[in-house]
């Protein structure tokens, strides 16, 4: 049982405010992922939770207990550093057993616990090696093992996989997800990697400039970003944005005039809009479709064939629009293409960049990782054809 | 070393000449630096007449001067003083400098850089400037001609350099490792003993060595603050220079005996020294 609450947490380094008041609830056994651009304060927030950095203001509660003044070792947390931060002069066993050695645990017991963790992480043959003699993935596993033996109620990971190559990253990602299952622990995870965030998280926290932009499940953030920042940050390739003019507002949604002049009704709530407020339309590259009768057109500048998919970069006025199309589209560079989109896939943002609320929820927006599993398991035996 | 090995096949034509020139240059500089020491050692094995004759490498070596030096006064007593004072002051300096360097490297404030510079600036003051006050203080508290007195003076003398060097070594230590230790439950003291010291040992060793060498070779304070009881080897050498004129051979023999221990120590710890002094560069 481990919950974490942050109440109006701030952090100031000298005169610069790095964390500007963050509220967050992390539930028991949840996998929470912090994402955000470089320098937005992810590590700082993590370090405050860990106790390596003091909070300038606000409360940190673990299991309902205020922890601001409690030392890092006594918060019941373990942290895995991006740099692994292994003790170079100790063996793998020494590294993993260090916390117990400090706590005065007898050698036999220490060894048993280390072995137990080593088994989970397949580190048994490496126990006598020094970190120097390990590969990147093995070092990472030792760092995780060092966290596991402390039996923490909350694991903190600060970009743990970013020093690994792509293949190893996929493998470790799966291993971490398995660990989360196996250990029944609460995990907080910082990453730059969209795929890690989308696949591992129960809950994604999008940070920007020291504030939380949005908290939600991966599918909720993808389908219903609360503002332009989240819309642009979640999803890869990035969402396309167009400036559009207001045409009319009705109970069916907001009708806008697209670049090129055609009207289009987006099913979002527009009652609060000022009459001639500037609007911005956001459509993800994968939701733009090549269509001879589509309302939009432009000239292909770059064409990237990925095999299964083709990315088209299309010049439309001053904008360069990204379209994810079929792998076998026949277009070539400099061809002019017509394209369109389904109105319910589009997002509309007001002058402040706040998203107008959709009139209907996307069916997957409330999906959790647990649902995902429940839905796929029965289907597994037959398999897909 | 590695650079040499890697680049050798790449420029097979131009390298031998360049390398030859560089090697010659290196040897010449080493010889120039080493020559006075060599000459001193050679002179120690000459007779007093040969020593003041025209300089020559060819002579019949004799232990005459060494015997004379041995006969005159107890080398051992001076040497023991030197050892006690050099190592005592080094130990004391490290004991004070490690916590200070820790604080400055890991808990810096706005004034840390200033403090470091200020500490180093005290080395710019000529020691003679404070000789009289220190002499008077030492006389009043009874530290004149005591090992304790010299240990205190040498500790203070080397402290800025020792703190500065340790500070640079500590700064090179990845902070994450100490933080990981803190997460694992290490107190500050445990952090220092289990993580910081083992990981910066080469640096600490070379710092200590430098401090020992500086203390060993120091003459100004030892000549002024000691007379007989606590006099180290530098005072021993000096005692051969004065009353009846200079005796080059005996002086050289005494000097050779005085620097021999530190030379041997330096020789044995050469690897540590080089590793420590180039710690940041080659890591
Ligand atoms: N000790 C410090 N003193 C002053 N400023 C700091 C300190 N630590 C971090 N900062 C600043 O706080 C901001 C947030 O840093 P932080 O390391 O939390 O970013 P991050 O989101 O983890 O970035 P990245 O994705 O690059 O790791 C940065 O602008 C950084 O310069
Ligand atoms: Mg970071």
Q: In oligomeric terms, what are we looking at?
A: heterodimer
Question: For the largest beta sheet of chain A, what order do the strands appear in spatially?
Answer: 6-7-8-3-9-10
The CATH homologous superfamily of the largest domain in chain A is named P-loop containing nucleotide triphosphate hydrolases
Which hetero ligands occur in this complex? adenosine-5'-triphosphate, magnesium ion
Protein name (chain A): Sugar ABC transporter ATP-binding protein
Region (Disordered) (chain A): 365-385
Keywords (chain A): ATP-binding, Nucleotide-binding, Sugar transport, Transport
Domain ABC transporter (chain A): 4-234
What does this entry look like structurally?
The complex is a heterodimer of chains A (385) and B (283). Chain A is an alpha+beta fold and 385 residues long. Chain A folds into 2 domains: 4-229, P-loop containing nucleotide triphosphate hydrolases (Rossmann fold, 3-Layer(aba) Sandwich); 230-349, OB fold (Dihydrolipoamide Acetyltransferase, E2P) (Beta Barrel). Chain A is built from 9 helices and 20 strands. In chain A, the strands form 4 sheets. A 6-stranded mixed beta sheet of chain A has the order 6-7-8-3-9-10, with helices on both faces. Chain A has a 5-stranded antiparallel beta sheet with strand order 13-12-11-14-20. A 5-stranded antiparallel beta sheet of chain A has the order 15-19-16-17-18, with no helix packed on it. In chain A, a hairpin with a 3-residue loop joins strand 16 (296-305) and strand 17. In chain A, helix 3 (107-120) crosses helix 4. The chains are: A alpha+beta (385), B mainly alpha (283). Chain A binds chain B through residues 50, 52, 71-74, 77-79, 81, 83, 85-89, 98-99, 102-103, 146, 150, and chain B through 174, 176-177, 179-186, 190, 194-195, 198-199. Bound molecules: adenosine-5'-triphosphate and magnesium ion.
């Amino acid at each position: 049982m481990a919950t974490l609450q942050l109440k109006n947490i701030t952090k100031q380094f000298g005169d610069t405010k790095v964390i500007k008041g963050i509220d967050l609830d992390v539930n028991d056994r949840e996998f929470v992922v912090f994402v955000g651009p470089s320098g937005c304060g992810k590590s700082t927030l993590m370090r405050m939770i860990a106790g390596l950095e003091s909070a300038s203001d606000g409360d940190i509660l673990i299991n309902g207990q205020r922890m601001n003044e409690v030392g890092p070792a006594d918060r019941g947390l373990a942290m895995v550093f991006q740099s692994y931060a292994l003790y170079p002069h100790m063996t793998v066993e020494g590294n993993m057993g260090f916390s117990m050695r400090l706590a005065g645990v007898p050698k036999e017991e220490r060894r048993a616990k280390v072995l137990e963790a080593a088994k989970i992480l397949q580190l048994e043959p490496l126990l006598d090696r020094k970190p120097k003699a390990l590969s990147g993935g093995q070092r990472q596993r030792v760092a995780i093992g060092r966290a596991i033996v402390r039996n923490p109620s909350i694991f903190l990971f600060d970009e743990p996989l970013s020093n690994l190559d792509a293949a190893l990253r996929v493998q470790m990602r799966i291993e971490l997800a398995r660990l989360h299952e196996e250990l029944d622990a609460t995990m907080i995870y910082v990453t730059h990697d969209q795929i890690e965030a989308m696949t591992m998280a129960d809950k994604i926290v999008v940070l920007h400039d020291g504030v939380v932009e949005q908290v939600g499940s991966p599918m909720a953030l993808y389908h219903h970003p609360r503002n332009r920042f989240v819309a642009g940050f979640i999803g890869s390739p990035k969402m396309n944005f167009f400036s559009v003019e207001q045409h009319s507002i009705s109970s069916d949604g907001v009708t806008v005039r697209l670049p090129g002049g055609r009207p289009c009704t987006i099913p979002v709530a527009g009652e609060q809009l000022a009459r001639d407020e500037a609007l911005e339309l956001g459509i993800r590259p994968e939701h733009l479709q090549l269509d001879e009768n589509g309302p939009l057109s432009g000239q292909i500048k770059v064409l990237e064939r990925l095999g299964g998919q083709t990315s088209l970069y299309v010049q439309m006025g001053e904008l360069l629009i990204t379209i994810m199309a079929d792998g076998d589209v026949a277009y070539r560079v400099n061809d002019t293409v017509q394209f369109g989109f389904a109105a319910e896939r589009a997002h509309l943002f007001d002058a402040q960049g706040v998203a107008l609320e959709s009139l209907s929820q996307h069916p997957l927006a409330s999906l959790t990782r647990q649902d995902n599993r429940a839905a796929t398991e029965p289907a597994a035996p037959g398999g897909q054809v | 070393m590695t650079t040499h090995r890697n680049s050798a096949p790449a420029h097979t034509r131009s390298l031998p000449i360049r390398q030859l020139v560089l090697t010659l240059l290196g040897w010449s500089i080493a010889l120039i630096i080493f020559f006075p020491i060599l000459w001193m050692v050679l002179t120690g094995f000459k007779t007093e007449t040969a020593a003041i004759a025209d300089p020559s490498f060819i002579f019949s070596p004799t232990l005459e001067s060494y015997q004379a030096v041995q006969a005159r006064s107890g080398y051992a007593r001076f040497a023991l003083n030197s050892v006690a004072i050099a190592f005592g002051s080094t130990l004391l300096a490290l004991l004070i400098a490690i916590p200070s360097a820790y604080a400055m490297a890991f808990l810096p404030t706005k004034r840390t850089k200033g403090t470091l510079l200020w500490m180093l600036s005290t080395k710019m003051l000529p020691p003679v400037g404070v000789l009289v006050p220190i002499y008077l203080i030492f006389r009043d508290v009874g530290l004149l001609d005591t090992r304790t007195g010299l240990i205190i003076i040498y500790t203070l003398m080397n402290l800025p350099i020792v703190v500065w060097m340790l500070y640079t070594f500590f700064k090179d230590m990845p902070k994450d490792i100490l933080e990981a230790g803190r997460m694992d439950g290490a107190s500050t003291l445990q952090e220092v003993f289990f993580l910081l010291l083992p990981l910066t040992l080469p640096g600490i060793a070379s710092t200590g060595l430098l401090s020992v060498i500086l203390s060993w070779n120091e003459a100004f304070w030892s000549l002024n603050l000691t007379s007989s009881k606590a006099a180290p080897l530098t005072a021993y050498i000096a005692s051969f220079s004065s009353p009846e004129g200079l005796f080059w051979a005996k002086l050289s023999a005494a000097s050779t005996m005085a620097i021999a221990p530190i030379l041997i120590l330096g020789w044995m710890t050469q690897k540590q020294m080089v590793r420590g002094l180039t710690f940041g560069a080659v890591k």
